[in-house]
Amino acid sequence: MVLGILNTKGPENPTKEELVAKVREAAQYVDIKQLCISGQCGFASSQHGNLIAQEDQDKKISLLVEVAKEVWNDV
Predict the structure, then answer these.
(1) Which of 15, 40, 48, 67 is packed most tightly, with the most Cβ within 10 A?
(2) What is the rounded distance in angstroms from the CA atom of residue 43 to the CA atom of residue 22?
């Protein structure tokens, strides 16, 4: 099951702790080994794309990697 836990439409980001909490909440209902995370949608989900800088996109991807490492490092 893929959890789309990160908004890709704008530059703002939740904290890593907030995202980890979302994953842990989902793990109460689905085995953690059956979960993965992603953005809620693509960075350009319309013909004209979204007004989000490449730097902000990179930060979002890095944040997802940090969350994944924290959650699944010992699984």
Answers:
(1) 67
(2) 21
CA atoms within 13 A on the CB side of 9: 7
Query: Where does residue 30 rank: exposed (0-12), middle (13-18), buried (19+ CB within 10 A)?
Result: exposed
Spans in the chain with pLDDT lower than 70: 45-49
In terms of residues, how long is the chain?
Answer: 75
Q: What is the pTM of this model?
A: 0.87
Q: What is the DSSP string of the chain?
A: -EEEEE--SSS----HHHHHHHHHHHTTTS-GGG-EEEESS-S--STT--S--HHHHHHHHHHHHHHHHHHHTT-
